[in-house]
Amino acid sequence: MPTFVCTKTQKDSIMPKPIIFLAIANDREDNTRYLRNLPLELEGIRKSLEKAQDANLCEVIFEPNCSIEKIIDTFQKYQERIVIFHYGGHADGYQLLLESLLAVKGANSGLNDIAHAEGLVELFAKQKSLKLVFFNGCTTEQQAQELVAMGLPAVIGTSSEINDEIATQLAIRFYKGLGINLTIGKAWEDALIELKIRHGSDNMRGLYRKEAKEIPEKQPWELLYKDKTALDWRLNMIRKYNIGNIYKLLNANFNDESLQLFCQIHFEEVHNNFGTGQSRNQKLMALIDYAKRKMEVEKLLDLVAEENPNQFGQFKPYFD
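The structure corresponding to this sequence follows.
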């Protein structure tokens, strides 16, 4: 069988990957307000999404010293592709604390920048692709409410000043859920359950910063949503596969011998489970079912596209 080359650029032009945008900013002016867990939050979320990235379900862009310029530049560059925006840092109901572009470039390491909620809400509300905004900062509930009122599907905000370490734990658990293709609702539910396991439901004090003046009788994070359908969203809902066409693609590309060899090299578990009495059609469906279950449909399509890009384009394995 001749080998053709199908570049990532050619393939990705069929259905661009959705983007998760992680923005982290610390206080560079007041050492007492420096959030030491922010780098851990960024790294933990990034690792939590590795499997989804490897499966080509998403692309992760992260800004560890985020400025106003970087937020606007990123949304302008990736219009209609950013599905989740995550902010970690200091905030309140009216603003996010970001880092000055000069500080990011090293010209002045002691500058912060204030991003006002009025402009941020307008920016986020205009992003048609956005499914979720996660404000992992203090007292962001008002911004969250305004965004949902303006039509954003789902927003996570906070009612008070939150504990930095626990905020990191919560975010990492949430994105671990999304990373294995759980829905927003299920991933959030699991993250809150972990809070209860670690801290109990009777100890709300530990979830808040020591400086917090009032401690409500509930945890400070809340998932707000436009309607319940927003909670059912998951990463693989962006790239919708035409399973019938994937079957036709594989059927046209492999005879029984080449299918056996292909699975032996690339999908050993599928190959090992082939039975002596299985037909080629049954083996093809076993391969497709395995790829769906293991979130490896993109891997399967990549490999087939590399061998025969003409057939790949002909059978169009994605829905438009």
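Residues 1-14, 103-109 have pLDDT under 50 and may be disordered.
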